[in-house]
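Lecture notes, unit on binding sites. The following record was shown on slide 14. It pairs a sequence with 5U1.
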Amino acid sequence: MSTPDLFASPTPAPVPPASVIERIAALRAELDLHAHRYYVLDEPSIPDAEYDRLFKELQALEAAYPELLTPDSPTQRVGGKPLAQFASVRHRIPMLSIRTETDTEATGAQNFDLRVRKELALSDSSPPVEYVAELKFDGLAMSLRYENGILVQAATRGDGEVGEDVTQNIRTIRQIPLRLPADAPPVLEVRGEVYMRRDEFEALNERQREKIAQGAKGEKTFVNPRNAAAGGVRQLDPAIAAQRRLSFFAYGVGEITPPGEGGPAFDTHFELLMTLKKWGFPVAAQTRLAQGATELIAFHQTIGQQRDQLPYDIDGVVYKVNSLALQRRMGFVSREPRWAVAHKYPAQEQLTTVQAIDIQVGRTGKLTPVAKLAPVFVGGVTVTNATLHNEDEARRKDVRVGDTVIVRRAGDVIPEVVSVRLDKRVPGAPQFSMPRQCPVCGSAAVREEGEADYRCTGGLFCAAQRKEAILHYAHKRAVEVEGLGDKLVEQLVDTGVIRTLPDLYRLGFTALASLDRMAEKSANNLIEALEKSRHTTLPRFVFGLGIRHVGEATAKALARHFGQLDAIMDATEEQLLEVADVGPIVAKSIRTFFDQPHNREVVEQLRACGVTWEEGAPAVVAPRPLSGKTFVITGTLPGLSRDEAKDRIEAAGGKVAGSVSKKTDYVVAGAEAGSKLVKAEALGVAVIDEAALLALLAAAPG
Ligand code: 5U1
């Protein structure tokens, strides 16, 4: 009997062919190059699809030859497992902080230049000192350590001596090279700032607001990009950090191989920055050489004017003595170099008080609560309004009239209340609640399930929605009034020539011709187009009313089903649900629209103005197989997404509910069905799988 040889070496893995090794190297180099062009230079040179194709090819080769996988591969940015906690890192060269000049006027730059000149014992007749002027990013300081060209560690500043090892998260930042070119020194620590772009911050908060609106627990919005970036860097799970889409700018170095040991020799800070750029690090394009105080002041002013248009927050600019020899001569005091200063701009966050909470109605009927503020100078302008976004946000932040709040204004973004100083709240201040009526037209304001916003339902009548309603009505796929575009509607409404949709048909030549830039011919053309639009079709008219959720296809289905406008206007929700294209949300929206007397009145006036269409008999409708049946979907179905299953059930006349009760007819259960399945079994409700559902649906037309 032979025993297995426990110590025999395992079957050796096939040696990867040279062609594979070469291809992997070529793919990595090419992907690194394109990522650098895309993320750092903002100059993509291949389509995204081509990048994805190369990336997938590399992934496939690495999967086939795992022994060729290296941590610096572009496929390995989000590779690590969640950590229990961050390890401490002692900085080999401390991360200094920077002296701050809070005088936001030109004198701030002059003071620094005077100090430098004094420190260097320069006389009045000596030439200006050469500086490097940079941006002061509002993010968090980071040290990136490369050994033999590979990123081996990323550490936060911490107390300047000891920081936290956040390498896994920093690897997910596409702008940070995982590998450096061959001429980079054996040891290089790059110091810079991790930040979040404003558009990424807005998008992140929008996603957070949606999650909160849908009832997600433990989610919150972020106060500003800096906090969102700091939170991202300190995520224990790198997959979450990757979703934050952070960015990086380099502005200096820590430890670096000295020239005597094969490292590079730099004479100036500017030369150092340009070399970092050459090695693949993002360096802000605004970085400039500046001669003396005059050019520092000019830089401060120019960047101040550009500040709002920058895609990220800055809180000031930084001036540094350019000569490294002079920097060494000046040294530092209490962890701050004497050769550098941060010259601030007016803060982007300030304290003020809430005088009222008003409701603004947007062009599409969205109601937004807006805090009316005691005027406050923030981010360089005086702010008197700040958005509270929606009911959930206003409640979550619990902003009340009389509160002291922190307001933020950065860039072109609308000012925002970021938090309330609860310690300063006036006792008894009532909680904010969203009105149930549109403050502009008095129509009902409704919030649909799963949505964050309340909307005015007086679409045709509401002054706030007038322009949008007219444009929609005149659209070529709706009632079509040729030549009635954006600019003209703007002019007609702003000059008060038309106030409501029917006023369009009361327009006379004189009123039109009196408008700015309206030639006689154009006025005649518009009158002709309006005349033509009087003869329309029922689907076009229904679509033109701009009822929420009623697109062209639904309008056609309604017209086909009911034949006449009055029948649509008077239909109950149940009757509307009989229409092939109409589910509960759409039915409710139609019903609410026609329940507003103002909307009906506008329809009547349009008819009185001679807008006509051919009416027909209602279609003979075959009874739908799932009419009157209620379904609950639970778990993951093998072939249909939940939305698809829901759409198909509703199209067949059935209803889909969120929870199981005695009234439920069927529970459709997929993989990993949970408590709903248990409840269905307990209540004796029929449980079916996807196949059985498809069989029920097969009996449905279309
Ligand atoms: N641009 C820039 N920002 N920043 C921040 N340079 C710069 N340098 C810093 C800091 C804290 O510190 C060095 C002067 C040590």
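Take-home: The first helix runs from residue 18 to 40.
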